[in-house]
């Protein structure tokens, strides 16, 4: 379709919407069909405007102005609000659009304010983070806030162009909630949004992605442009479409906002006494932290699978299944239809759970840890079978089920070496490579099976025994969970166990990306895999890039790399990100985020709008993705040097009378971030075992922007006299003998005391307490919870230089 000249183009709905976002909590948000309907929108600002509050005894510390800017800007993560219940309102309707290729009718030209179309004669208020161009949208961060028109430079692989998208991030206030089906372009599948040109006489709207006209069945026929603001999708860059229903045929929704799916705890019974004592302490604290309505089940595994029965009261009783093979249908049927109770609410089973944990005994045989038989795969199969329960197509009626997604928490002290999904005890086995590959495929299949049944599997490993990460990783990853390694079953393990059980998660997520002006997606890195064509609705000329998400959680993000097919001619480029998922109440949520970036001709204008921290994280994820082995990591470290040289060559300026190029001053912090990437644990040699590096890399590839940035480039904070803190560049010069320093590296937080300060007992104790309080507050909502390690100068001098 040919574009209509500007003078004949229909007027856009608006450029800077007058309505701020309604205060609703984003996913994983809780929607209950029993509570009142959404209230009216109220003004609110986007996240990140309030300063971070970091308290230390006896009062909150104050950040003084740094002596010089920190190497990496600190971004405070907003506090997570409690889930907001939501009610189904009557009159929900399903609407569709009618596409046409007719030319746009003649219309008077819109008024413009600073180059943006606005309603006639009205100056709209400043947009919030969910309005306007959306450059401060909390869900999407671009590597540059403007797009370079020249294809050659925009597509330069050394710098590149892309975005970090966190579709499940929690912010307050959240996006507007709409209780009807979204209107979509029948040509390309894009969603109607605030940038669409709308003909108020006919109600037709023009898609910003493919420029085709679509009908609204008269819905958008209004008397003035201002009347279009009553539709949230035409007044905000981000909107949530909600449909109450359920994916499970036997699901019965309840109104209790504290509802959660059942939690199965799988415990390795091949632990030595010291490890078992730590684990028992963590498990006792874990069940005490659960809400009374949470349902739990307990399984131990070794050569057999023991499923504990809560119906015996104070007595410890378990049904035992063989671990050398998958459970049969008959054995699961006996468990499901028998008299035993294997999933029970905390308020009824807490004493029994404590008794079970106390009854666990250490491994008795004189067998090395790595050689002990562990039927982890069979234990997960049994837990899945019990969670799925009986078939819902039973003649005796509807079966009431738990409302939330289910979780399996595996507490492992060694590898899976017995039964399905197992590997030989020794890596020197002549067929180990083949058997490992077979086990990985089996674990991947089991992970996908869990994901189809809305069950997330988190695997928490502890101790010094190698756990064969390549085998266990697919099980956690494909189910939407995480595999974490810990030194022991102590404090950090227990905290991660609690945070894993309480983090809300959506399931059956589908992530769609659409771009205008010949922009195309070249790579997506994150917690998902490319969706098959039959897994989503397709349109006649749909050029979207679709990802099947393993789960939808707050601490996740996708790194999206993009290129252009040719030089860009238009003044704006449009991007639309949509995620469709099912929340814990089985309500269907479709979050649509539409953003607009201005295009520029000049290289200096483009570089001035590059977001160095975002660009660093995207480059880091692209690099780490290729570091699959230790030898690959060495190659990637060398590639970082070549990347910096190429950026200077393509985007820098040549020095007078020299063949050398100056690195662009607009990207001054980028090389420093890449230096930390090269020397840090992701690619460097700080961590000794390849399993540990593999787990960290997988976590980094899926992590949110904030956590990814901390893992890439540490944040350095110095404790000052009077209880204040000062953020400084992460250079070794901050390691002064009279100072205490906090180094936040994402998965680890180091506290360092200088020699002079450490010698003063009273001051060092106060400084250490203040630094630890700061570290705990910095990581209060972080998952996985970092280790907090304290050192004195004699010990840390051997460690921190590796980071600096």
Brief description of this entry?
This protein has four domains: 140-245 and 505-610, Immunoglobulin-like, CATH 2.60.40; 263-391 and 401-502, von Willebrand factor, type A domain (Rossmann fold, 3-Layer(aba) Sandwich); 611-713, Sec23/Sec24 helical domain (Four Helix Bundle (Hemerythrin (Met), subunit A), Up-down Bundle), CATH 1.20.120.730; 714-803, Severin (3-Layer(aba) Sandwich), CATH 3.40.20.10.
What does this structure look like?
This protein is of the alpha+beta class and 804 residues long. The protein has four domains: 140-245 and 505-610, beta-sandwich domain of Sec23/24 (Immunoglobulin-like), CATH 2.60.40.1670; 263-391 and 401-502, 3-Layer(aba) Sandwich (Rossmann fold); 611-713, Sec23/Sec24 helical domain (Four Helix Bundle (Hemerythrin (Met), subunit A), Up-down Bundle); 714-803, Severin (3-Layer(aba) Sandwich). Helix 2 (273-289) packs antiparallel against helix 4, helix 6 packs parallel to helix 7 and helix 11 (630-651) runs antiparallel to helix 12.
Write the layout of secondary structure elements.
Layout: E1 99-100, E2 111-113, E3 116-118, E4 140-142, E5 146-148, H1 151-154, E6 161-165, E7 176-178, E8 197-198, E9 205-206, E10 213-214, E11 238-243, E12 263-268, H2 273-289, E13 295-301, E14 304-309, E15 317-322, H3 329-337, E16 344-345, H4 346-359, H5 376-388, E17 406-412, H6 432-452, E18 455-462, H7 469-479, E19 483-486, H8 491-502, E20 507-515, E21 519-525, E22 528-530, E23 545-549, E24 558-564, E25 572-582, E26 588-600, H9 603-608, H10 612-625, H11 630-651, E27 653-654, E28 661-662, H12 670-679, H13 690-702, H14 705-712, E29 715-719, E30 725-728, E31 740-744, E32 748-753, H15 755-758, H16 761-778, E33 787-792, H17 793-796
Parallel strand pairs: 5-26, 7-11, 12-13, 12-17, 17-18, 18-19, 32-33
Antiparallel strand pairs: 1-10, 2-3, 4-6, 6-24, 8-9, 9-10, 11-26, 13-14, 13-16, 14-15, 20-23, 20-25, 21-24, 22-23, 25-26, 27-28, 29-30, 29-31, 31-32
